[in-house]
Amino acid sequence: MQIETTNLDIYGNDPLPWSRAHAALHDFIADPDGRAYLSTCGPDGRPHTTGIGALWLDDGVYLVSGPGTRKSRNLAANPACALAFPFDDLDLVVEGTAAIVTDPNTLERIAARYRAAGWPVEVRGHAFTAQYSAPSAGRPPWHLYYVTPHTVVGVATAEPHGATRWRLS
């Protein structure tokens, strides 16, 4: 992966290293202690942001959503999206493009990660199902989306401070 770094800091701090952002995201899975938010844009241009159960793996973000939810309808009309991750020492925004995952091996692998984290999800066809999920996911079955990141912006909230944009290709 190629990474282009741009220093956005206006106070003279050095650019943040991608390794700091990547370490924060590495193996992230949303739970009560780790939050993530998804922003989409509806066909009418209105923004929509909601908390989600995200998982960082394969150098991108996996998320689950029912087809009838606003976020899924928005992604069907426009797959461009942004995800926000507020970590203790670093706020990250990941911009990318979402696509529904249908590969059976990937679905099983991601379901296993969710099960290991305590969500008893199963794969049925090209979707997930379980007895429960986050209320914002809608009713089952749920699509699994993979967001391919193209830009990440980080703002450090602890030393060393800084603000940086990374373009990924």
Automatic annotation (TrEMBL):
Q: Which domain of life is it from?
A: Bacteria
**Molecular function GO terms recorded:** coenzyme F420 binding; oxidoreductase activity, acting on the CH-CH group of donors
Provide the alphabetized UniProt keywords: Oxidoreductase
User: Domain Pyridoxamine 5'-phosphate oxidase N-terminal spans what residues?
Assistant: 34-118
Q: Which GO terms describe its cellular component?
A: cytosol
Query: Which InterPro entries would you find in this protein's record?
Result: F420H2_bilvrd_red/Heme_oxyg, Pyridox_Oxase_N, Split_barrel_FMN-bd
Under what name is this protein listed? Pyridoxamine 5'-phosphate oxidase family protein
Q: What is the lineage of its organism?
A: Bacteria, Bacillati, Actinomycetota, Actinomycetes, Mycobacteriales
